[in-house]
Every structure is written in structure tokens, then in C-alpha cells.
User: Fold this.
Amino acid sequence: MKALEQCARCGKCLPHCPSFQATRKEALSPRGRVALLQKGLGGEALSHCLLCGACEHICPNSLPLLEAFIRNKPREKLATFLEIAFQGVQKTRPALKEKDFHGREIVFFLGCGAKVLYPQETGHFLNLFPAAREKISLLSEPCCGLPHLAMGDLEGFYRQARQILSILDLIKGRYLLTLCASCLFTFRKLYPLFLEEFPSEIQIEDGIAYLLRLGASFSNPGEVFFQVPCHLRHLKKEPWWRKLLYFEGCCGQAGTFGFRYPEEALEISRPLRKALSLSGARFLATSCSSCLLSLKRNFPHLKPLHIAAFLKF
Assistant:
């Protein structure tokens, strides 16, 4: 909280905050949330925070806005439902041939998305590794813990994160790959921030970027419209997606945000809808589990896929 006193109220965060852009309410802007927190308030304002990291990414004073918003986020009523949902995901067997992969240098984190939302694309991604002369082992935990943070359930996040860390300690892989931009953001940004025991020697990699670096490419790049997830864009990663038709903006889903605030989420997604309509693309893709859920719901006629489906050697 003391670090937030350095907020200059400059307003540079305003154009980058999806919630503020959709509502034009100062209380739902990053600097508005900071002001409310300093007064001991902010519950409702923080429940509207998408945890995208845009404000911290652009802040000229490099304030720890994301950590402050997460630690003060009120627990949502859906948090208990979330626990039940992940118990169901835990029981879901991935439609993948786990026995075919025995590498120990590279560990691939499945997460809930690869198991439930895009198992076919994940299978295609893994089948490219023999062509890249790489071996990979699978970590089939159901969740990185980010949905718990979105629900204001810090205790649930710690429980899930430490379970993953205990498995990583046994595997001792050199690379941890994921296809989900939000999982990538959680591992690279939030684990080191909230977990002192996080092993710094593990290299967290975007699975798409990893294979592109080994020589993979995209099929039909001029026909694929890629919705760039906020969490991928704000990690300051090399923008490999610029080889495709793309839109760097929020889809409005952000975990359960799109279900809790559907009208606000619709307003957030308007620039995306406009860009997509003007693109002339045949295929729609993203690389975030939450974003893909939103795209499948809002653009069913385009049959959205995870971008991994378009990788080739």
C-alpha cells in the first residue's frame, strides 16, 4: 500500500484499462481503484478488475498495481463453485497419448484448457515435437491457480500453486511450456510475485514461441485472425503473432468476468468484433483458454481454434 502513494494520477493507465474504456467510470480505472484502496474501500471496483496487467505494464512509476489489486480483491460467491468445477476437470482424462512422451528436459503443462477446451489442438502441438527432435513430458494438473485469484480466493491459489511446484520439484525439467497465455502469465509473473519458493532456474516458455524458434511456421497465415490475449501481450514477449492477421485487445471474458458482468464484457469486446469483421479472415484463433471460451460463445460460425492448430514443420 505504501508503494501506491507514488501514483501520480497521470492517467496513462486509462486508455489501457478494458473496464474503464467500457464504462468510463473513474472508480473502475486503475488510478480510481488506487484512490479507493487508500481510503480503505475498493471492493466493488476491484471485483470489476480483469487482472490483465495492462495498467502495471504502462505505469511510468512501475507501481505494483496488479499485486495490490489481487491482495485486496473481495472473495466472489462463485469461488465455491470454482472449486467444484476444478474437481470435475481433475477427473477428466486428457485425450492425449501421455505414454508416448518421456522427456525430462521439457515439461508441458496441460491445465484445464488443454484437457477440456482444445485437446485436439494440444495433441497436434505435441505431435510436432518428434519432427523438432525434442522429447517432452506432461504435467496434467488441472489449473495454474489464476481463476482462484480472479475470484478473490488467495488461499485457493496458494493451494493449487504449491501442488504444482511440488511436482515440478520432482520432475526437474529445464523448460516449462504451456499453450495458455494466462497460464504463462501466471507462471512468469504471479508465481515469483506470490511464492518465495518458486525455482528461478526453470525457464517458463510460450509453447508456440518455442516451436517457432525451432523452425515451425503457420499454415494459411494470411487467413488466420489471431486475437492476442492480454496476458500474452503484457508479458513483453516477442510479438510472433504479427506474422498473422491479429488484434491486440481484450475479448472481455477474463475467467468468469464475462459471466458476472455480461454487458460490460460485451462493450469491452466491441473493438475486437469490428476488427474481425473488417479482416476478411477465414479462421479465428487465440492462445488463452478463457479467450477461446469467449470466442467459441460469441463467434460459433467461425469455429474458433487454439492457434496451435495452425503450426506446422
About this structure: The two ends are 49 Å apart (CA to CA). The chain has 17 helices and ten strands.
